[in-house]
Design a protein that fits this description.
By secondary structure, the protein is of the alpha/beta class. The chain is 43% helix and 13% strand. It contains 22 helices and 12 strands. The strands form 4 sheets. It has a 6-stranded mixed β-sheet. Strands 3-4 form a two-stranded antiparallel ribbon.
Length: 572
């Protein structure tokens, strides 16, 4: 059964949840005959560009979405049974004793990692509008303190398709055997999204009625028929290949700050990127359990395919990959002139000011550089950097350009670079030429102690709608991987610390090779040889975490400057 499209798939950018890099997901989708694949990471769109590029190489159409925790539309009053204590509905949200035991994980110090908030998957459907809606939702979810949470007031989007799965408020009501409550909870979602609403059925081979169980998947399909809402089939993918369940268990343990409990609820091992034939079998089991004829499975798959077909977002046209957006010319001193005319005028004025106006070689070099800049349409870029440098200098902060940008006479005339490139024989072509299509690097150094003042000045001039500091992922290397895997396997903390510190700062995937080859690890290697199979499991899990994002930090010196459409193209 070729052609199945997974609508709910996470990558390693779902911090300490997804167990596979976006590139691997795209590769496996292509190998398994899939025409399209959605990436719906938790709380972030950070993996989108890598995923889109990987899909282009693999010949797979990318779909884009996000999995977000969503606040309740309104507080639930009472327990529905004549009392004021937490009833079954409140317990599903983690407010009562049963909910607390199931949804909240105790950690050291008596605190809790609360994962009780319902989660919903949003897919971009209508081109640039759908992508802008996704960006807005993620920005809104990160606006408050604590874990990302989308307030109900921000839960809108004309360009979105919404999947209500097992983790949603509707799914949890069905888990509890409360279709009446599920119907009530469905109402506000219908009011907002109408025909763009879907009910997501997932079967991971689990027993009972909880997420991933056959009974819940069947209830979801049956409930969808009753409510006249289109159902879709998903596998809520966390990893690309079968057998990666233990890696997911380690990530769960690291996220919840508790060791893996072999007697507790472990990953089922079924949340992998299954091919069309396997998903047809899953669909058949679900519709049979729901009391429908087996051939109804094809209708469920067709609804899933139709939903995927509606999600049309082009990485280049709608996301803007490969396109540069500069601040509007009037913000960088152009007034009513074009950016190119403003740049040429400012360069000519500086030629006179610096005494170069009588030297033909300088005029020829200036005209040649301006011609190259006009060829690429980069005039606004040079004016923007010059404006920032002027502002920083007026603040009394030392600022200087370095690198290949110092080879441009235009940069020198704008006051960006101090050195005279003609006098020092520096080449413009190392920095920019007509053959180089990429935006050139103008590296600007400022006093590190006053960096935040510079950030505030840039935001003050251009506005928060055009400026954002750059985020960067902190990824697993060998030491962090050993610490998280060791803690998950309930190893002694002193042993974990000793083993982690024994390793140099290398990639996690090289752990066993380092044990075999590095002299300083010889004694440690002998120690693990005696433990045999047990140590093999440790190193297998350590290497499986290689380069997966484990956290997000602010880049120490990266600031993104764009035009007023920035927040429609990236979340902040």
């Amino acid at each position: 059964m070729p052609g199945f499209t997974h609508l709910h798939t996470v990558s390693g950018f779902s911090l300490r949840y997804g167990a596979t890099h976006p590139e691997r997901l795209a590769e496996r989708a292509s190998e398994r005959g899939m025409d399209a694949l959605a990436l719906t990471d938790r709380d972030t769109l950070a993996g989108t560009v890598r995923f889109a590029k990987a899909c282009a190489q693999a010949g797979v159409r990318p779909l884009f979405g996000v999995d977000l925790a969503v606040a309740d539309p309104e507080p639930v009053r009472g327990n529905g049974f004549g009392g004021n204590g937490p009833g079954p509905d409140a317990q599903m949200r983690g407010e009562g004793p049963a909910g607390r035991e199931r949804r909240r994980t105790p950690v050291r110090g008596g605190a809790f990692i609360d994962e009780s908030t319902p989660r919903v998957t949003f897919l971009a459907r209508d081109g640039a509008r759908g992508w802008a809606d996704l960006c807005r939702l993620v920005t809104a979810a990160h606006a408050g303190e604590g874990a990302p949470l989308l307030p109900w007031a921000g839960n809108t989007g004309d360009g979105l398709t919404v999947l209500l799965g097992p983790g949603s408020d509707v799914g949890r009501a069905l888990t509890a055997g409360r279709p009446d409550r599920a119907a009530r909870l469905l109402v506000p979602w219908r009011e907002i999204y109408g025909d763009a609403l879907r009910l997501e059925a997932v079967w991971h081979g689990r027993q009972g009625t909880g997420p991933g169980s056959l009974r819940l998947a069947a209830r979801t399909v049956g409930f969808a028929a009753e409510q006249r809402v289109r159902p879709v089939l998903s596998n809520a993918v966390r990893y690309a290949d079968a057998g990666a369940g233990p890696v997911a268990d380690v990530l769960d343990a690291a996220r919840r700050l508790v060791p893996v409990d072999p007697t507790g609820e472990l990953d089922s091992g079924e949340a992998w990127l299954k091919d069309g034939d396997v998903m047809l079998q899953v669909a058949e089991r679900i519709v049979e359990a729901a009391g429908f004829r087996r051939d109804t499975a094809h209708r469920l798959l067709e609804q899933t395919r139709a939903t995927a077909a509606e999600c049309l977002v082009d990485p280049e046209d709608d996301l803007g990959i490969g396109t540069v957006h500069f601040p509007e010319p009037h913000l960088v001193g152009a007034g009513r002139r074009t950016a190119q005319r403003a740049l040429a005028s400012r360069a000519a004025a500086s030629m006179v000011r610096l005494g170069y106006d009588t030297r033909r070689a300088y005029w020829e070099r200036t005209h040649r550089e301006l011609d190259i800049i006009a060829h690429h349409g980069f005039a606004s870029y040079f004016l923007t950097v010059a404006q920032v440098v002027d502002d920083v200098r007026k603040m009394g902060i030392r600022v200087a350009a370095r690198g290949s940008g110092a080879g441009s006479l235009v940069n020198h005339l704008l006051g960006i670079a101090h050195a005279d490139p003609v006098e020092h024989g520096l080449l413009m072509e190392r920095f920019l030429s007509k053959r180089r299509q990429v935006l050139p690097d103008i590296d600007i150094d400022v006093e590190s102690a006053r960096r935040l003042e510079v950030y505030r000045a840039i935001i003050g001039r251009f506005g928060t709608e055009r400026v954002a500091t750059v985020a960067m992922p902190e990824t697993y290397r060998v030491r962090h991987a050993i610490r998280d895997v060791g803690a998950a396997l309930s190893m002694d903390p002193a042993d974990i610390d000793r083993i982690a510190k024994s390793f140099p700062h290398i990639r996690a995937r090289d752990a066993r090779a380092a044990l075999a080859e590095l002299p300083e690890l010889k004694s440690l290697a002998k120690e693990f040889q005696q433990e045999g199979t047990k140590s093999g499991k440790l190193w297998e899990l350590v290497e499986a975490l290689d380069a997966l994002p484990r956290g997000i930090a602010m880049h120490p010196c990266g600031v993104l400057l764009s035009d007023a459409t920035l927040l429609s193209r990236t979340p902040v």
